Amino acid sequence: MKQERMTAWPEGYGRFVLDSVDSTNAEAARRAPHLRGPTWILARAQTAARGRRGRGWASPAGQFAATLAMRPPESPDRVALRSFVAALALFDAVIAATGRCSGLALKWPNDVLLNGGKLAGILLESAGSGSRPEHVAIGIGVNLREAPAPYEVEPGALRPVSLLSETGIDIAPEAFLDLLAPAYARHEAQFATYGFAPIRTAWLSRAVRLGETITARTARETHEGRFETMDQAGNLVLLTARGRLAIPAAEVFF
């Protein structure tokens, strides 16, 4: 089913659509010093896409690849919470595109799942030294028409899925951005006005495996425990055999 929907573009947000770029996050870093406000950068193709920890990011044809570049005058800890703002916006954009919410879930810290598979990921990067980053780039990749092959993802990772294969909805990247941008603007306004508390509550209501046993792997350790909550700092909170543990960064496996 072909899906082409237009919604009102959020006031105050810029937009660039590029045929090809190395990576939208890299392009955001190049443009950031000259931006007058938050700006979306969409690329129809990426030649050097990357994921978390510098990993390569498969970018098959029809994938949504965009970055929101911002210059928020805030501390790094608060800036980092926008990955959860982006996750909520992605969740809403998928509902707007498909008209359904069944099968959708959020996986800590930055993935959107559909029918148990990975549909989308978020990569937040900031630049600058001191107490306030010079800019932040919120990179978002969504498998709209195709998903990476299993051999293109790391061992143990969730199977990749596409929106088209799971729902039958075929939506172009530009049309998906028209849904995502206003959804992000709504959640950003809530974050700016009321802080992280309502974002956290909304995120937890959509969290996968909450209350269940999961595995979190950091660069040095592996922890297994019951996923109790996400705290006010965005940390994953596990109840392990050694007690309650707050984890700021990790890869989560089921």
β content, as a range? 25-35%
User: Over all CA atoms, what is the radius of gyration?
Assistant: 17 Å
Strand order of the largest sheet: 2-3-4-8-7-6-5
**What's the helix-strand series?**
EEHEEHHEEEEHEHHEEEEE
Report the CATH superfamily of the largest domain: Bira Bifunctional Protein, Domain 2
CATH topology label of the largest domain: BirA Bifunctional Protein, domain 2
CATH level 1 class label of the largest domain: Alpha Beta
Low-confidence stretches: none
Structural class of the helices, strands and pairings?
Answer: alpha+beta
Intertermini distance:
32 Å
How is the biggest beta sheet arranged?
A: 7 strands, mixed
Brief account:
The chain has 254 residues and is of the alpha+beta class. The chain contains six helices and 14 strands. The model has no long low-confidence stretch (mean pLDDT 91).
Q: Would you mind describing this structure in some detail?
A:
With 254 residues, the protein is an alpha+beta fold. The chain is built from six helices and 14 strands. The strands form three sheets. Strands 2-3-4-8-7-6-5 form a seven-stranded mixed β-sheet, sandwiched between helices. A five-stranded antiparallel β-sheet has the order 13-12-11-10-14, with no helix packed on it. Helix 3 crosses helix 6. The chain is globular.
List the helices and strands and how they pair.
Layout lengths: L1 E2 L10 E5 L5 H8 L7 E5 L20 E7 L5 H5 L1 H17 L5 E4 L3 E4 L2 E11 L7 E8 L20 H5 L2 E2 L1 H22 L2 H8 L8 E5 L4 E9 L5 E5 L2 E5 L3 E3 L1
Helix pairs in contact: 3-5, 3-6
